Amino acid sequence: MLNKRHCNIPIFIPQKACPHQCIYCNQRYISGQQTAPTLSEVQQTIERYLSTAEKDTDIQVAFFGGTFTGLDIEEQKNYLETVKPYITSGRIQSVRLSTRPDYINTEILDILKHYNVTDIELGAQSLDKEVLRFSERGHTAQDVEHASQLIRSYGFNLGLQMMIGLPKDTPEKSISTAEKIVSLGAVSSRIYPTLVIDRTPLSAM
Ligand code: SF4
Q1: Residues with CB under 6 A from ligand 1
Q2: Cα of 25 from ligand 1 centre, angstroms
Q3: pLDDT tens-digit profile of 109-136?
Q4: Separation of CA 26 and ligand 1 centre (Å)
Q5: Which domains does the chain have, with CATH numbers?
Q6: 65 close to 18: Cβ distance less than 8 angstroms
Q7: Residue to mutate (ligand 1; options 22, 131, 134; most atoms within 8 A of CB)
Q8: Looking at the whole model, is its pTM more than 0.90?
Q9: Rounded to whole angstroms, what are the CA distances from 47 to 40, 42, 44, 91?
């Protein structure tokens, strides 16, 4: 039997709720989007994608960009409530989101579970403490390990992003990070090269 076709409906929440300025990041600039979408814009985006989706497609709403779980709890719920009717009616199957490892706790995971979030992707970037520090990530490797264990204990699919070529990174450190990502039980990993984006601290360096 053929696997079902999969479609993501991307909703960008640019750098909203980020407590730090990682030295390489300027989400507003790279996404071309200055502000977080309103609830009606989220609805419009979903409707637009659904209008062209083929039958029998597994459809997931994906909140990319900033730190979803760093938003006020009410704001998180409002976004998830907007998606809920589509899940109830079976037009959308699940939700995924990206966030930071230091913004995961049991209260947040309970809410995400309730709203059919199935996949949580953490920006780990590196599991080397020096790389994390020089990239001004504002969290530690232990934060990544702890959040990963918690996410898996709830039965979510764990994704861990890594970024190669950050300040103080080496090929050996990148390989070690990749090995740790596997051992933490990630079912997916997006590997980004470090690009020097204009209007970032990295570009100033
Ligand atoms: S946590 Fe993510 S979105 Fe926020 S500044 Fe860092 S890389 Fe950008």
Answers
A1: 15, 18, 20-22, 25, 27, 66-67, 100, 123
A2: 6
A3: 999 999 999 999 999 999 999 999 999 9
A4: 8
A5: 5-204 (3.20.20.70)
A6: no
A7: 22
A8: yes
A9: 10, 9, 5, 10
